[in-house]
Design goal:
This protein has an eight-stranded mixed β-sheet, with helices on both faces. Helix 3 (about 110-125) links the parallel strand 5 (about 90-100) and strand 6. With about 180 residues, it is of the alpha+beta class. The longest helix has 15 residues, at about 110-125. About 25% of the residues lie in helices and about 35% in strands. It has four helices and eight strands, in the order ββααβββαβαββ. It has a single domain (about 5-175), classed as Gcn5-related N-acetyltransferase (GNAT) (Aminopeptidase), CATH 3.40.630.30. Helix 1 crosses helix 2 (about 45-55).
Amino acid sequence: MEASLQRTGNEMIFRKAKKNEAKAVLALYKSVLSMPFCTWNESYPGKEEIIEDLSAGTLYVLEEKQELIGAVSIVPENELNDFDCWTIKENAREFARVVIRPEYQRKRLSVHLIEGVIQELQKQNAAAIHIAAAKENIPALKLYQRMGFSFCGEADMYGHNFYLCEKALLLSASVSPALA
């Protein structure tokens, strides 16, 4: 099921990625490698993550006028649950690999990706969302803070320092009508 989002008269759609979009998602990942605040490299995220996410049905995209402008993964297994800082561990989910095409950045489109994740996880009756955000990714940290995530702890992983962020979710009956 697709969720339509409105932005200045243009229709944006947050939906599950299709298998034939793997190359386009990989191109999205690669498009931000040289951008400030990006902690990714040539090998991560890559084809392996895309194949795993597509197989699990956990890769989502944001499209406008049939063009992919963003992607995000709702991780099938919450690897972040092992940290002790969370206030909600049971039935918490993790999202990762948030990307917006460079020419669409600074237009608050990441909000639509995260709202789509929130809506999807509310449908699945998840109790909370967890994310590890690189400390050097200032725009992402500001976004999560604006969207009501709390900063619960810190971790050193994958050669970077991260803030561990959490957001409690409401019941699915409270999904925003604009996203339904």
